[in-house]
Amino acid sequence: MYCVMTGDIVNSKKIDPLERGKMEQAFLKTFNRINTLYQEDIFVRFTTIRGDTFEGVLLSSRHAPQIALEIIENLYPHIIRIGIVLGSLTNVRDSSDVGSIDGPAFHTANDILGKMKKRGGDGWLHVAIQTPSQAQPIVDSLLALLSAHTRSWTDRQRQLVWAMERYADQQKIVAQKFSISPAAISKQLKAVDYTAYKQTWTALEDYLYSLDIKKDDAEVQSFTSLLNHGHDKKRQQEYRAALVCYMRALKRAEIELGETHPQLACIHYKMAEMFIKLEQYDKAEETLNHALQVLAPQPRGYLEKARVINALARIKITSSQYKEAEEHFSEALSICSYNLGLGHPIAAEIYNSIASMYVKRNEYTEALQAYAHVLTIYEKILGADHPQTADVCSHVSDLYVVMQEWDKAAVFGRKAAKTYETRCGSRHPKTSQATQRLSQILASKQIGDEASLLG
């Protein structure tokens, strides 16, 4: 069962050409971000169709409501209609091209958009979700209540709610962003009944995910369901169990999609990741080579090839085969450059791996240069205050610690700690680790400063 998402802009014909250009850039930036953050769940990348319409296909529907909200927020003040459909596809020959995908789920999604357009309505929240379930009337009712609930919100109230979602419900930080007191924030949240709003979205997400992983009537799970089970096990760090799920998913995908479909390479890649976690590098390399065989018919710039080749390079690094690793990195970057340029998120993955290689070889200046590329890409696509950007800052800080450049280590350590606290919350493990690490850096810096004065 796939999750198809389609959408369009309300009254798009009234948008003037200059504003349309800005809107198209906002679409591009938004979809680059979504395709990066949710890449594990994406079957067909999100892209625009005919300028003011978009489509994408997910393997897991749990994140569909959150993705819908991100699109709505990032495209505001343009009002977006979004249809979400859990269903089947009949033509999935090439998941790299949304135009080549067809099936009942797409037809239903387009029907939903048509009905939403005829129905009209005020407000900023226009989302419909269609599921193959007897609970469909409940889903419809929840969405209708959400739409009615948010219709009377002022622009400031809506921005406040979006900020609460972005900053992990931390009222103090949101208060700072809005330059008002936490008490005023609390009063505004009560006025919009933020708790009920959030609980409704969470309930929808949980319900959709329960549909993702259920067995069908024949007690045979689809490859998408098995992948979702595998993702759960991976998140729980149960790598052997995840590997079993991915292996079963591969067998089902061969039946459902055919033995040459590019999606098989993605599953091989996930299997290889688990082999690497289990330190079974020979099996990981063998699995990745299978992925390349599947991808052989694809064009030169097919991005999944770059991801697979990058993984092969990482395996070479584990056995200090640096020449082979460098050759793989060069080939992977060439694919990215040929396709979308070196500002693509997969290029960031490659530069991150290159940095790891340089660190292992004690070539710290070169490692810093590679990390600089990663930061540039993530800051452009995800933002300077995103947790994944903070991850890179943390790596850079650790590298400066090895180099005993305490001032620079502290700069990047502060950036990481501040971002984790702002976006994840003060109690998040990453925040605690970053804060503790920063304290150690500052203590070492003080010792170094005192030693310099005495010397």
Structure report:
The protein has 455 residues and is an alpha+beta fold. Among the domains are: 2-153, Alpha-Beta Plaits (2-Layer Sandwich); 403-455. The chain contains 19 helices and 5 strands. A 5-stranded mixed sheet has the order 2-3-1-4-5, sandwiched between helices. The termini are far apart. 41% of the residues are buried.
Principal-axes shape call: globular
**CATH superfamily (homologous) name of one domain:** Nucleotide cyclase, GGDEF domain
Distance between the termini: 69 Å
Radius of gyration over all CA atoms, rounded: 24 Å
- Taken as a percent bin, the fraction of beta residues is 5-15%
Chain-wise SSE layout:
Blueprint: E1 2-9, H1 17-37, E2 42-49, E3 53-58, H2 64-75, E4 80-87, H3 104-119, E5 126-130, H4 136-151, H5 155-166, H6 171-178, H7 182-192, H8 194-213, H9 223-235, H10 239-257, H11 262-277, H12 281-295, H13 303-318, H14 322-339, H15 345-360, H16 364-381, H17 387-402, H18 406-424, H19 429-454
Parallel strand pairs: 4-5
Antiparallel strand pairs: 1-3, 1-4, 2-3
Helix pairs in contact: 1-2, 6-7, 9-10, 10-11, 11-12, 11-13, 12-13, 13-14, 13-15, 14-15, 15-16, 16-17, 17-18, 18-19
